[in-house]
Each structure stands twice: as structure tokens, then as C-alpha cells.
Amino acid sequence: MARTGSSRRRAVRPARPHALILAAIVAGLATPAAAQPAPRLAIPATTLDRALTMLGRQAGVDIVSLDPGLARVRTPAVTGAVSAAAALGRLLRGSGYRAERIDARSFRVVRDTAPVRRAQPERRGAPVPRADLPPPVTTSADIIVTASKQRVSLLRYPGSLSTAGHAMPPGAPAPDLGTLARVSPILQTTGFGPGRDKVFIRGIADSSFIGATQSTASVYFGDVQLGFSGADPAIRLYDMAGVEVLEGPQGTLYGAGAIGGVIHLMPNPVDLRHAGGSMTAGVTVTRGGAGGADLATTLNLPLIADVAGVRGTLYRVRDGGYIDDAYRGARDVNRVDTQGGRLALRVVPGAGWTVDLGGLYQLIRAADAGYAERQVGDLARRSGLAQPYDNDILLGSIGVTRRFDSGLELVSATGLAAASADDLFEASRRQAGAGAPIIYQTQRTKRLLSHEMRLSRHGADGGSWVVGLSLLDNRDSQNRAFGFAATPMEIIGVTNRTRSASLFGEASIAVRPDVTLTLGLRATQARTDGDPSFRPRSQNFIAGQLTRRVDPTVAFSWKLAPELAMFGRVQTGFRTGGLAVARLIGRVADFRPDAIILAELGLRRLRQGPTGVAFTATLSQARWRDIQADLVTRRGLPYTANIGDARIGAVEGMADWVPFAGFDATLSFLYTGNRVRGALADTSLRDNRRLPDTPPIAVSGALRYEWAAGARSRLGVAASASYVGRSVLGAGDLFDVTQGRYGVADVSAWWTQGRSTMTLSVDNALDGSGNRFASGNPLILSARDQTTPLRPVNARLGVKIGF
């Protein structure tokens, strides 16, 4: 449950109005509200969720609601000396909601059982709000950490958390996680291309290559897990309420594979009251490259008002190529086409029950690899044939939620994800007079069935708890072929199947009004069985592994002032082991589980009101044992091994300053120092014995200003810049290859007229060059001259229309 109000118990509401529970806490005054003179209110015409938040703060009362639809209702302005009860009456008149008095200073807002009348627009001629409207701008003090599974307010949350993508201009094309990583220092990524990149959080990076190991960062779509191992599927984030990044490890709440953290993708829920939608389209031009385009549409349709509805999204995106192949005489070979869609059905039968059915699909088709070779040119290479790849994913989910009058919440979430990926690489460098090309092909199929059931409650004093059960069944198969392009021969691959069951619980106890202590525990039993694709030449492997783990959490939050809190946390995490391809063709071998423990201490300040400063600063130290890593040999063939141990220290910070309405300045950075110890790492130069793809320093900053240009028009401009320091491809002398050390600047401008927005954005506006990633074809890595260049300066003209 969440509330709105002011003073000592100030908590927060969801960062987006589409979250399932509107939360607002504003603490009461020392004397009952009824005993006070009518407060002077200044509440502008806005949406109902925001109006209730402002009323609670200005009148010093608590207003509680569990309804997700408040953000879709417009309210009139309320000004002057008005009692809280009278102001509530004005705000709720004709809205379909009513207020119930709890006590002298507390109210509950619920749906009115009388026939619903649509709320009046805020002014004559103004359109009735619909599902296409963007969520209202919120302050950082209004965030509920939904990924904590307890709906804890951000000020009370005892850990590092960031939101991604909030600075995107209106009407911009939907990013994927790889795009967000380029402007968010807390995220790192490889550069093989959308659909086959790995994403890391806060420098917890195992290797640059894809193999049998479980991912270090768990990606969730709503309440269900998208994948277990392999690359990030690069879901295009259309029609999303937000993206939360919980920095890891998150072993207590999320189990194996969350050693780096959790990325929580939050789609907009179905709106059961208003029909509407939007359409976005854009064209992109790139200096010296091919053009691109994007098209997306979203439609929300109530089937039975307040009972059932559907919401769907379809999209198609083409990223034009910009790399030439000098040997084949082909231009702009690295084109990527993405198409996908989502469909959600929500049913609210009553008595606190909500049922959500969802489906998602996405197909990525890349015409060729996206790397260049220094000997050929900054944006060119030589290869004897195209090296395409594709990545497909399907996800189906069933979610059932029951909210009780007592404040309890029961959640059951079941998901089935199926993915496949095909890759082709040329196995030799092209030279004049070279013979028939030799290729290396991989085919991977994955199937993940997951289920979680949990019960939680959030108390008014800041305390909360959650207990749950989690079940998982994952199957990951890899087949490989190597040889001449016309007649490649199958070589050994592996299939891993992991089944796990976990019981978990976490409780936050308010030991004092300003101090919350959090304790948690997760008990896991996991078994991984591995089989080669055909009988191996060596029988020296383990067909099954059983892992039993207990992952604790100890954390605290200390509220130093109404807007300022200190937090600290100690938590562990792990990844399961399995069977993987070993060195040399025709061998397989077992790799062991790895484990991590992290301690962090941070300070968080939230902005109260429309202007001011919000910031977070965190120190952390981690120890990572028996690191699993997917690597390649000098011939470029993959294998998996435990490479040693690492210590990782990090300092990170984020600041958000709004000096006056409409202007926003943000700055974020990550500084990390790490050292890998092990036989492989010891072959590197001393300064290169580092975790892969993790620069010591990464910084990003942005300025944004938006202002009214008429009764229904707004103009806006934004500029951002980021810098990525030097990193290496991995631990070991083969991977002592420098990458990074570049900066990028972007600018954009937009014009909003009613429900339509036109946007002009220029990425890499200074046309900078840089090597994002020092590989694109692992089979020729030993030549050590591959680069993954930045896309040259490119401009997009886009439009978004709501209806």
C-alpha cells in the first residue's frame, strides 16, 4: 500500500502513473487535521493522482489509494482556503471515485459504485485524456521501487537503484538496453550487435563472448524472467512505463544469475476506462551510410469498462548500415531489421483480483556483422562472404494478483520464454587470391519456464515484508559447424538443463521512526545436467551438478532528514555451473558455480516539490570467486572456464537539478577499479588484468528545457554528452586489446501541439570516432585489429500522434 501526505513519513509514489498501485505518503501534522484552520491550497489543474499527492502535502493529511486508474482522470484547479474534505470533494466530483474517511486526518479513495460519469476536462475545449497521453512528470520523491517486490518507497529502499531512459525526448524511437547503456554509466555492453550483446551492471562483467554461462544481469519483463543465459534479446522498449536497474547482487529476491543486478522492464498496463493509442514514425539519415526508418503503433481498448481490456503494440525498425566490405565491393553491409509486437489482456473480476495475460515476440535480422578492420579503414573491412545473424524471442505470461483490504498483496507470475539465435562467422582473413571461405556457424535454442508466487505487505511506518516460492526450468542447446562454406562439418556442442526451486523472504522493520532494518534469506536447490550434442572424444565430464545455496541480505535505511537518507547493504549471489565446450575441437568440460558478496554504503536525497536537487552517491566493494567466463582460443573457437577471482571497488553518483520549472540538468558517473587474479589473467600486462568491457571511468550529462508556446503547444530542446574510458576485451594476453576512450554528444528539439509531437534529433552530433568494442568476429581475433566503430553523425525526423 502507498500513501500521499507531508512531513515525517514522506514516502513516494510510482515513477510512472501506469504502475499497478498508486502510492503516496505524506505524513500528518502533530495535531489532527480537523483541529486546524482550513489550509490555503494551490493545486493546479492536473491528473487525479498528482492532485491527491499535492493535496496531501499542502493539507497535511494522508490519502490512500490502491487504484491504478487515477492517472487517467483530469481534475480542476483548487485554490484558496479550503478544508481537505471539501478539496477532495471538488477533485473527485464526476471522476468515478469517492473518498472514505479513515480518521481525522486520513482518507481512502476508492471507485464509486454509482454509475460513472467522466471527469470534466480542465478547460473548455480541452480533449478528454486517453491512453496515448504520456505519463505526468514526477519528482524523484514520488518513486515506488516495484522491483523490490514490496513496493518500498525510494527513500526507504536500502540499496542502489537507477532508472533508465527518462531523458529521452518526446517522440524519440524506442531504445533497447544497448542504446540505454551508451548514456547510462551504470550499464555496460559488448558490441556484437543488437540481439547478441551482453549487458553488465556496475562492472560485474564476466566475459565478452556468448556461451554456456548464466547471465550476470537478470532481465525481467514485468514479473517474468526473459532469459537465463546468452545475450540480451534487445527488446525495443515501446509503450513502457519505465526501466528500473537494481544493482546487484540480488540473490535474495531474484536468485541465481542476478550477481550483477536486475533490469526490470515495466510495460504500461491496460487502461480499463479509456480507449486510445498512438502512432510513432521516423526516418533517419547517416553520413556516408544507408537510411533507416521506424514505425510503431499502440492501441488500448476497454472491452468492459473497469472490468476487462486489451492493449497491443506493433513496431518495425530498420537501422541502416554504415560499414563497407572492400573485398566484396559491398556498401553499408551492417543493416539490422527488427520487428515485434506485444498483446496484453487484463481482467478485473472484483474482490481485489486482477488477471493479466501477456504475449511478446520480436525478430531481429542482421544482414552482416558490424565490425571494421584498422588495416582497411575506419568504416570498412575485407571478408569473403556476408556474416549475418538473427535472434528471435517469444514470451507468454500469466499474472494473477489479489489485493486484500488489510494491505496484503498476493502475486502469482508464470512465464514461458523461447528464443533462438543463429550466427555465422568467416574463419579467416581475406587476402588477395584467397581460396574458398571457411565458416563457423552456431545455432542456439533456449526455453525458460519460470513461476513465482509471493505474498507481501507494506506498512504505514515504512516497514514491509515479502515471502515467496520460485521455480525455474531452463534448457539451453548449442549446435556448431565448421569448415568450407559449401560443406561445413558438425562439431561438438552442448545442451544444459537447469531446474531450481527456491524459498525466499525479506522483511524491513522500522526499529525507529527514522531507521529501517532489512533482513532477508533465500534457500535454493538447483541441478544442472549437461549433455554433448554427440558422443565426445573424451569422457572426462560431469553430466550433472547439484547446487545448494543460502543467500542472505542485511541492510539498513536511516532517514537523516525529510528528503535525505543513508543506506547500507551486504548481499550475496551466485550462478549455477554446467557443461560447456572445452579447448580443442571435440571436447567438453564441466565448469563450477561462481559466487559474489558485496557491501555498499550510500546517501540519497530526493527532490521535494517541482524544483530542487536530487542526488545519490554510493561506495561499494565486491569479491567475486571462481569467475565463470565464456572465452575463445587463439583459433577463435569458444570454450568456458573458471578463470579466477576478482575484487571490485566502485564509486558512483547521480545528480538531478531542476532550478526552475521546465529546466532539468542531470549528471551521472561510475568509477570502478578491479583486479582479476588467476592463471589466465596473469598472462596479461599488469594494467590489463581487469574485468572485460569495464572502463575505470564513465560519465554522462544532459540538459533539457521545455516551455509553453501557446495554449496547447510546447517547445523543447535537449543536449547530452557522455564519455567512456579505456577498457579491455578481457583477462588474458589474447584479450589485451584496448577499446573505449571516446566521447559522444547528442542534441534534439521537439514541438508538441495537442496530441502530436514532432522531433528532430542528431546523434553523435560532433561526428566523433571511437572503438566501442574490439571484436566483431572472434575467429580472427588474434589479428588484433578489429573495431566496432561508432555510427557516424546521423539525424532523425520523427512524429508521434496520439488518438
UniProtKB/TrEMBL annotation:
It holds the Pfam family TonB_dep_Rec_b-barrel. SUPFAM superfamilies: Porins (SSF56935). Residues 62-112 form the Secretin/TonB short N-terminal domain. It is found in: Cell outer membrane. Keywords: Cell outer membrane, Ion transport, Iron, Iron transport, Membrane, Receptor, Signal, TonB box, Transmembrane, Transmembrane beta strand, Transport. The keyword Oxidoreductase does not apply. Residues 1-35 form the signal peptide. It is a multi-pass membrane protein. GO terms for biological process: iron ion transport. Coiled coil: none annotated. Its main location: membrane. GO terms for cellular component: cell outer membrane. InterPro entries: Beta-barrel_TonB, Beta-barrel_TonB_sf, Plug_dom, Secretin/TonB_short_N, TonB-dep_rcpt-like. PANTHER family: FERRICHROME IRON RECEPTOR-RELATED, TONB-DEPENDENT OUTER MEMBRANE RECEPTOR. Belongs to the TonB-dependent receptor family. This is Outer membrane receptor protein involved in Fe transport. It comes from Sphingomonas pseudosanguinis.
